[in-house]
User: Fold this.
Amino acid sequence: MAEETMAEARAVMLANLPEKKASMHKNRVAEAAVLSFGLASLPEKIGPRLTHDQIEQTMRDTNSVDLLKAFGLWDDWTSGKRGRQK
Assistant:
């Protein structure tokens, strides 16, 4: 009897999992939006504006170049089509 109850509880939990994940995702999106709006509304900047070369160095330091290449964005970055102009 206890095994049936456990199995039923597990089935219900698994059935509700996609809904819970979607709810958690919505909450995280909302939190990110509030944070972004708050940062953009600050009277002072939170840091210096980086130059094209500084951004590129940061991408190299964080191994993001391979990711940009995988998504086909690196050539656009180096040509100036994407991102901050040189």
Observations:
- The chain has a mean pLDDT of 85.
